[in-house]
Structure formats: structure tokens, C-alpha cells
Amino acid sequence: MKVSVEGEKVILVPYMREHVPKYHEWMQDPLLLQATGSEPLTLEQEYEMQLSWTQDPLKQTFIVLDRELIVENFIHGEPHVEAMVGDVNIYMNDLDDPQMAEVEIMIAELKSRGKGLGKESVLMMMTFAFDNFKIHTFRVKIGELNHVSLSLFQKLGFKETSYSKIFNEMTLELPMTESKIFEMRQLVGNMVTHS
Ligand SMILES: CC(C)(COP(=O)(O)OP(=O)(O)OC[C@H]1O[C@@H](n2cnc3c(N)ncnc32)[C@H](O)[C@@H]1OP(=O)(O)O)[C@@H](O)C(=O)NCCC(=O)NCCS
């Protein structure tokens, strides 16, 4: 069974087949498609995408559960669709540098935004990726008008490294220095991993 990671406000669980219908529903929203740079998919394509994300060794994806929405107790291995509010991914897509990972975050459910879930999910994902894949630099691509996302990543210490005029998109990076890793562990607190 794949890994789940429990934090204070969120629990990161593997992207399972049971999550696909709700995920697909989210990705009908043009604003979310634009903010995440995604293409609309049919439900069938979304099932294929879920499989590809779980099988590709260069990708790690988690569904974000809002702890406040979990009915009764969290059970590792259960999808807890009732509490799914978004996803967080990394993609080790730099051919020249396998320890560089691009990170993506989405808190799709509006009722769960602004509660610190996005920030905690990114911090947990980066800590997990550092520990398990020895990632030394994280990269994020953000539309220049996405002020919320820019603020989230800048506050974590990401700095702009390039700008694409064609896509109106900024690339920001965060190197994993010893002091940054220490700070991340302090911020994320006690992370419980189930495997
Ligand atoms: C960007 C996104 C993930 C933020 O998630 P969230 O859970 O609402 O954010 P958090 O509550 O964790 O807040 C993290 C930081 O974001 C910023 N932020 C959050 N809500 C904000 C708002 N309404 N206005 C301005 N800044 C805001 C703040 O800097 C905040 O840090 P602070 O609480 O220390 O001030 C969410 O808005 C989202 O999924 N948007 C659509 C998809 C997207 O844009 N993904 C990113 C693609 S690069």
C-alpha cells in the first residue's frame, strides 16, 4: 500500500481510483484549469491520468484531505472522499537534474481555502520529497496574476529565477540548504507517515 502522511490540518493520501469523479468535477472549472495550467480531460482520460500518476517513478502525487471534514476517524488505505479538497504533486522533470522537482498545489474546495491547508500541504510534500527522493531544489511555475499562489511560495522562501513573456508565468526556486530544511521541519511539526 502507498504512503499517507498526517499533518496538523491536512492528511496527504495517495491518489486513488475512488477520488477520480470528484477530481474530474473540480477540473471542469475554467479558473482552476487556468491556475494549474491544465487541459480539460474526459472522465475516462482522468482515470488514465490517475493510473499514470501512480505508476510514473518521476511523479509523486497526494490528494489533500481537510482533517476537519473527515467523518469519524482517519483510516490509512481508505480514500476519505468526503474530506478531499485538493492535491499536491511533485514532478522530477528536469532531465539534467533528477534531484530537481517541480511542485504543484491546488486547494480546489473554496470552503477549505485560506485556512493554511495549501501552505501545510506544500511544506509536507517538500519535507517528504527531501527525505525520500533527496530533492535539493524545488521549482514552481506560477501565472504572474496568481497573487495568492505567489505569496504562498514567496513566504516559504522561493525566489524568481526566470519569467516567460509567452506564458506570462514566473519560475521560482527554493534550494534545500541546511537552514531551510531545519526551518521547514519546525514549521511542519510532527508528521506521521503510514505505509
Ligand atoms: C494557491 C492556493 C493553493 C492557496 O491555498 P490556501 O490553502 O487557500 O492557502 P493558505 O491558507 O495555506 O495560505 C498560504 C498563503 O497564501 C496567501 N494567501 C492565502 N489566501 C490569500 C488571499 N485570499 N489573498 C492573498 N493571499 C492569500 C498568504 O500568503 C498565505 O500565507 P499567510 O497565511 O501566512 O498569510 C489556492 O488558492 C488554490 O488552489 N488556488 C487555485 C490553484 C492554484 O492557483 N494553484 C497554484 C498554481 S501555481
From TrEMBL:
**What range(s) does the N-acetyltransferase domain occupy?**
10-159
Q: Does the keyword Acyltransferase apply?
A: yes
Q: Which UniProt keywords apply?
A: Acyltransferase, Transferase
Q: Does the keyword Heme apply?
A: no
Pfam families (UniProt xref): Acetyltransf_3 (PF13302)
Gene Ontology molecular functions = N-acetyltransferase activity
**Which PANTHER family does the record match to this protein?**
ALPHA_BETA-TUBULIN-N-ACETYLTRANSFERASE 9, N-ACETYLTRANSFERASE 9
Q: Which family does it belong to?
A: Belongs to the acetyltransferase family. GNAT subfamily.
Q: What is this protein called?
A: N-acetyltransferase domain-containing protein
Q: What gene does this protein come from?
A: LOC101254389
